[in-house]
Design brief:
The complex is a heterodimer.
Chain A (H helix, E strand, L loop, with lengths): L2 H5 L27 H10 L3 E6 L6 H13 L3 E7 L4 E6 L5 H10 L5 E3 L1 H8 L2 H28 L4 H22 L1 H12 L6 H20 L7 H35 L3 E6 L2 E6 L8 E4 L8 E6 L2 E4 L1 H4 L5 E3 L4 E2 L4 E2 L4 E7 L10 H12 L4 H27 L4 H15 L2 H20 L2 E3 L4 H6 L3 E4 L1 H5 E7 L6 H11 L5 H12 L8 E6 L3 E6 L2 E6 L1 H4 L8 E6 L2 E11 L3 H10 L3 E5 L4 H11 L3 E3 L4 H13 L4 E4 L6 H6 L2 E5 L4 H6 L2 E3 L6 H35 L5 H19 L4
Parallel strand pairs in A: 15-22, 15-24, 22-23, 24-25, 25-26
Antiparallel strand pairs in A: 1-3, 1-4, 2-3, 5-6, 5-7, 7-13, 8-11, 8-13, 9-10, 9-12, 14-26, 16-21, 17-18, 18-19, 19-20, 20-21
Chain B lengths: L3 H24 L6 H7 L12
Classes of the chains: A alpha+beta, B mainly alpha.
Amino acid sequence: MTVVGDFGRVPGLAPGLAPVSAPVSACPACAVVPAAERIAAMRAERDGRIMLSLPLAHCAACISTVEGALQRVDGVRSARVNLTLKRVSVEAAPDVTAAALIAVLAAEGQEAHELDPGLLSATETDRQGRDLLMRLGVAFFSMMNVMLLSVAVWSGAEAATRDLFHWISAAIALPTVIFAGQPFFKSAWASLRAGRLGMDVPISLALILATSISIFETWMAGHQAYFDAAVMLCFFLLAGRYLDHRTRAIARSAAEELAALEVPRALVLVDGAEVETAISAVVPGDLVLVRPGARMPVDGVVIRGASEVDRSLLTGETLPVRAGTGTVVSAGEVNLTGPLTLRVTAAGKDSSLHRMADLVAVAEGAKTRYTSLADRAAKLYSPLVHILSFSAFGYWMWATGGDLRHAINISAAVLIITCPCALGLAVPAVITSASGKLFRKGLLIKHGTALERLAEVDTVIFDKTGTLTLGVPELAALDQPDAAIAVAAALAAGSSHPLARALADGATAAGIVPAAVSDIREAPGHGVEGLWQGGRVRLGRADWCGAESMAATATYLALDGATHAFAFSDRPRPGAAEAVGALKAAGMRIELLSGDSEAPVRDLAARLGISDWRAGVLPAEKAARVTALTAEGRKVLMVGDGLNDTAALAAAHVSISPATALDAARVASDIVLLGQDMSPIADAVRIGRQSARRMVENFVISGGYNVVAVPLALAGAATPLAAALAMSLSSITVSLNAMRLK
Amino acid sequence: MEILTILIPVSLFLGGIGLLAFLWAMKSKQFDDPDGDAERILTKDWDDRPKP
């Protein structure tokens, strides 16, 4: 298998499960529009804005180079680099193509990849984030002003001065609470209507009660007002909300970028002309041309051409399969040697890749059944707060003989003091800190509770092809005569087949000079042949060269009537051994489940020291194994990349897939490994455990403050100053604790 | 204490300016690319004449 490393970013890739913007034509028969009109329509779809990803951009000079180079291209109206997102967005005339711009940037030494703007539009205007930031800014402004006024009151302002300060505070705090508290009010209302008591119900109650009791006290020229507490509560909770939102937005935009890299296009033959078309516009019955090295964009039947296809992402087999007229191919397979023309049988939503959507939906359902630490804390906490506050109210009503004002004052104080500033920050602060750390190590946390789930893992299941191995073959041993190797190397240099390239590389590394072979010609689907010293030599499949087929992945050389076999093994991913070693050291049970044949799986398991392995596993069996382990009470981490892993990734407690995985697999997994190196997986498990511990610590810390402050509040001894102190101290301690992650 | 009638409006006014500046900065997308803006100030491309 070849694909994963180099071809992962080939345009024309299968669309996977990304939402398709344009609907597929409802009836195939409607596609009787004249061909010319259809070509025009297809071309019109692609003008306007072009987005390119710039993975290497990092400095001021890069910005100038990229913008300058793009501005000089004819037809480009404007180009603007966003360094934070490492993207450039270009406004250009319709005839400017992304490929041309990528070539321009390559000449300037900047690597660029095309992004599908349709998939990215959601992140461009991140309105929700901006909305939260605005409320946060307003809350901060009022908090500071109200706090200044409160300091005067706490330090002993009296009579008219105190009332004046209370009135001014009210004028600032009331609009702030109404404006900045909206996210809490909305979600509290939603949860009440659903008949649940979420975290936001006591928060909203505290905000409303504190503000109204303070206004009442101000009106009655009372001594205590909680305006500062109400506004501070808003500010701290919004800060937690904003952190949470930002972590998720970063993960989402990076995940979207991964999906958008695979611009789903196909080369459709319309009246003999090749037209580049969005997958969504391809209908069954169309003819699609697939060039060597490209992924099948659709399901179809080969009607012309001969080649070999790599099915490893779908089945896990490493050995390429021959394809000729009549072969049925599915979206996601990679065409290796010769061009193929397909008649489309299913495209877009109906293709076999898209049918995986059901599986992913099942996965999402299973993931939402997990109750996060925060949810568990909230479940414990909200009824407790309500009970405490109401019993304080009841007790003081009884004790004071019906002094409503006093009783409400105390129950408001209880609500404010118990209110979860620290609880609201406890989880987001840890997750922000941990996912930032992991992102720098090359891991993208897609799901908010993934870290907590990772902390519970005790079993790790690996897929082989493309996960523990790179999917790039390397020559196992050069045990043939030098003359044969020299001829084989010369023939191999004439082909782009992955085995041929591995052979040529292996020979070069061994210092063997290729022999002088002339008339080299590639026979698609078979191999390469040429003339050497007047005789015909062939390098390729066993049957074509007249050789006995070996069990392992191999290519064969026919030379002077004799045959020589070159065996290949799959190169392990860098860091795979370290990751496996570290996970073992952490006490994990490790299994290797592969769809590949026995010999290569056994070899790799021995190399990495995995004793528990199985070969020839079907996709459904992988998922069944995960389910069986789960039923035994084990928490499984699944690491896999192919379509054959998707069901298992979905069923596992938590899952990781490499960035080169099929996007169906990436969608189903919780964490994406961005680089090639695998060793961050062990770090992820360690950081996951550490952050789960920090979250619990944070809950304990904020609980500790409550244990001290709540009795004071219940006894009616809590002053606004005490409330403000407890609130800010606990929030700050919790944030500092979160930053201790290493 | 009469001084308060001047000081409080003044402090609120100054704080309000800060708030408005923040809102304006956010509306004009100045928080969209913090890394880029930090680097852009170092470029010499438009030192002689403004960007067209």
